[in-house]
Amino acid sequence: MKREMGPNQMKIDALPARASLTAGQIVLGNIDYDERATMRAWEDFLADEQKCARDPVHPSHVRSLIHDSWYRSVTGGINAQGIEAPLSSDRDEIEYLTRANAELLSAARRSFASLGQLLQGTGAMLVLADSDGVLIDAIGDKKTLHDGMDIHLGIGGKWNEDAVGTNGIGTALWTGEPTFVHAAEHFCAGIKSWTCAGAPIRDPLDGKIIGVVDLSGYSPIFRPHNTALVAATARQIEKALAEQQQEQRTRLLEAFISSAPSYRRKDGLVIVDHRGRAIFCNNVPNGDTTDMMDGPMEPGRGRWLMNLPASGSDADLAKALPAHLRSCHVTPLKLDGDLRGAALVFPSVPIVSSAMTISREGNKHLQTAAEMIVGESEKLLAAIDVASRVARSNGVTSLLIEGETGVGKELFARLVHAGSRRTENDPFVAMNCGAITKELFGSELFGHVAGAFTGASREGKPGVFEMANGGVLSLDEIGELPLEIQPFLLRVLEERVVHRIGDSRGRPVDVRLVASTNRDLKQEVAAGRFRSDLYYRIGAVSIQVPALRERGDDVLLLIEHFNRRIAALAGNEPLGFSNDALDALLAYRWPGNVRELKNLVERLHILARGSTIELQDLPGEIGAGNRNDIAMHSNHPAAMLEAPVCTFEDAERQAIKNALTAENGNLSKVALRLGISRPTLYRKLGQYGIRRGFL
């Protein structure tokens, strides 16, 4: 039986069919495929997509995999009447894709070469796509390859579900499993005359999907075993990738041996490849590297550890190391003149005394406390450095922290406590001098005995100095300390002995004092409100914590930090921020500093109407400056008409470049500025062939 094919029909005699099936039906795996019924289901879905999305029961003749993908396509804004996939024909972008996927192309070369000739005259083509669904190679029947370009099924075509809806390549990427999509099951009308079967390709080292191999052609080429064919081809490519990786692993080890003669067998060693993933681990110590101790195959193997810099210099490599790996020695490893990996060597640790163990534990606590202070500005890092030195020093018994209200002075006090700890139970006691009445200062600081004064406790009470014995006492807003109490505080600091009110017996105390203030104590001394001898006693070492307006892009880091923390506590997704909103937040003066910023993010999580914060969502005092800029720009329509008209992709590419320039290549800040995640940013960089080093 033969019929003429329409755009959404097939030759019935070209495929095996059961006698009991009516015309237009075939067997797809374990289900009966009916072309007309599937088309009607698709049309019904588009006619009332919201009802179909709410209805968990899909039509019996439409697979759940296809129904779910249709829903993703609709909600993703895919045009159901689309006739082709997006296509990049830019030579530079194609060249970048080829370089970025050189390993995948090399691994697929043997399989594609053997299958290419066999597909001639079959009406089928075999394509290779990267992890974003962009085609990077295609072979097979010449006529089919030619016809495939009508729907952009060729090199440079983008076939993930976000670009073209339900199809063999994109749906295989989404599900992570071998998948076929046949004829009317496609979401876009223009590709419903095609059939395709795709299978994901996984990196043998870490199991991540790095590409898809797909068999495509007009619908008559469908066979139930097409999926098995592409799955077998994907496994062959993965096997070739494993062989390539093993060869590279061997060469990098040889390069390390030739470049590191002082390496000792007891030292810990990690070799990372050009992507910063661990490919060899030996004697890796616990502690700083526990994050990579639970990987597959061997401890840490396959774990991503760092981004290798383009330059490959020792200095740049050291900077690229994450904080928990800074204790190692790093050596660049080059193959054929190109940086292809690095060796991280952890010197073996000799047996140490208990005092050294305590010191190392203190450093661990110090590092944890330092990581709680979010920021990368020079002034902030300088303040952290001074506080860390004080914490590690046994000779400094008092420290003065100066800074405006809300800058986070207590975090620095806790950092000093963390680095000073000799035992787990060393106390940290904080007292706000601005919250104590003048009459109670002496009692709160030094304590009192029973009946020392009217209202005194019957049992007596220790003061904060005694409670902080062996640890750190933080006196916040010390500028509020009454002048008549200041001599007594100075005496305690000098003699290291405290006398409770009403008691002649002295009590020795071992306390490190961290005083903080938002006042200028030098001016207070000049005005006679603060004793100069006490000032010079507590201010022998001082730290100036910078105001938030002086910390530049730390605003973005803090927004991301609080945004993710608040979202996690509430069980929600983090908010996104538009470019205009971020610009306004950067331009704002932040009189309340970090405390004000944190409160703002909490407010936005409660009051935001959508998932993205726009300029109009910000309080008036923050968004006013940027709104004025926008208004001024809108008052000059001629200037807007002069701007060149470009495609959406051109605009997106330029926006990424502008953000990279503004953030000096810092990808975390770029992603925050653009309101996208880091993985999405990486895909966009690959899609548009943009490299961080283009600046």
TrEMBL record:
Organism of derivation: Mesorhizobium argentiipisi
Protein name from the UniProt record: Sigma-54-dependent Fis family transcriptional regulator
Keyword Nucleotide-binding recorded: yes
InterPro entries: AAA+_ATPase, AAA_lid_NorR, GAF, GAF-like_dom_sf, Homeodomain-like_sf, HTH_Fis, P-loop_NTPase, Sigma_54_int
Domain of life: Bacteria
SUPFAM superfamilies in the record: GAF domain-like, Homeodomain-like, P-loop containing nucleoside triphosphate hydrolases
Entry keyword Transcription: yes
Entry keywords, A to Z: ATP-binding, DNA-binding, Nucleotide-binding, Transcription, Transcription regulation, Two-component regulatory system
Pfam family, any one: Sigma54_activat
Lineage, top ranks: Bacteria, Pseudomonadati, Pseudomonadota, Alphaproteobacteria, Hyphomicrobiales
PANTHER family in the cross-refs: PROPIONATE CATABOLISM OPERON REGULATORY PROTEIN, TRANSCRIPTIONAL REGULATORY PROTEIN
